[in-house]
Amino acid sequence: MMMSVRGLTRLSRSGYARGRWVYSSLGINNRTLLLEHSTHFRSPLQSSQEVLGCRVIYSLVSNALSTLGKQAQFQSSSVVEEQLDPFSLVADELSLLANRLRSMVVAEVPKLASAAEYFFKMGVEGKRFRPTVLLLMATALNVQMPRQPPEAAEDTLSRELRSRQQCVAEITEMIHVASLLHDDVLDDADTRRGIGSLNYVMGNKLAVLAGDFLLSRACVALASLKNTEVVSLLAKVVEHLVTGETMQMSTTSEQRCSMEYYMQKTYYKTASLISNSCKAVALLAGQTTEVSILAYEYGKNLGLAFQLIDDVLDFTGTSTSLGKGSLSDIRHGIITAPILFAMEEFPELRAVVDQGFDNSANVERALEYLANSHGIQRTRELAVKHANLASAAIDNLPQNDDEDVQRSRRALVELTHRVINRTK
User: What is the CB neighbour count within 10 angstroms for residue 52?
Assistant: First the structure.
């Protein structure tokens, strides 16, 4: 989507109450960054919302799409002069990474090997979203060497740096897939990426062991980087994944209904991996603390936006489009942003949430409240806010006139648009 004006999108205001929350993002050189959110939103959607069975739909689709289209028009100082496909820019490297990942997860025991490579096989690798972000970030942060060594030596240094940054992308993808395998066991999921989940096909025990095996391979690759700060960052990510999952499993009634708690959990479960991996790429490039923090902020806000849209799609998508069951969160008793926002408008929804969703009638009641609220719209607006913050981080990177650097930065901004506008 074209962008022309600098700054963040100011969402239009209405007479509704403004919710504010503050939470801290951990792990940025011991600095605590506070992110404050004010919910501003337009007058209600003109289209009425209904619940048909278990689906939340809008009766006037064109009006809804028009409204959401306006929300997604981000503002940024970067002027897009060409339509970029971020994935095409790094397609060749992604193929190399995919081949290397398949070779890295080979195991001596055939059954473990089959399990570990289950989501790395051709055709089921997924979108490879995280490696794409990291490869683009690596180019976006490209810097000239402080001294001018002979050309051959410079090429060698450049290739070595790129190889190390590719390694971070591989590590990130292994950690991500390991977390999916473990999550599917905890959620008793039966589908993932449009096929049977590993736990459904091979059983829980093998799925857990395959996830552990991937984490061990990621650790070996991480050690090969011989960079203690990067090792510490990505080790913290694994801790965050476990913490976030535990927060989701063991919540009090108050925590389940807290937006602050939800956003902190979302950071741990989704945004920590991509944000700290972006920072790792910057550190390997020898970037300053300030630039490393900007890389971190891009990844953090992109990750939060991604998960917020995921929460929307869980209500509005279909099992076919998502590659996994729709309405899975609420059926597992997981309260996400759309329901939290709906609760602000309808406090009586809290009683339904407290009763739990083992009873399908409670699921139906919650969906009815959601359909009559602005929960979906407000979640999208919050996602847009974080997408804008991610774009702003790229805009604030040091000036660099290199064509490849500029193109990669535009592609990173383009990814924020795709995150917001995706349907699966």
Answer: 10
